[in-house]
Sequence to fold (101 residues):
Amino acid sequence: MTNKAEPSAPQECRTKTDDFNKKSQASLATASNKLTSSQIAKKIGIKTNVLIEQLIELNYIEEREEKYYLTVKGKQAGGESRTSPKFGLYFLWPDSFKPSN
Fold:
């Protein structure tokens, strides 16, 4: 009598790139339901650089000496700035954030 191995459950097929992208996004976001500026831009259907321009025009962030900073309005809207050794400075926003006057 031979032992037949039970077929294993199918495993998700992932690539190193998939794992990297998931880890990168997870490391940039926090557990408090915040999204990066690029994630917000994608969510509302615009390019990240267009969103950044809007955030400057609407006074959520400001540019000084070729760097971006959160304004009081940006902080009041729930924005946070972070620095990643790999990605540099980035902003987090509540997942419900929509820039407005």
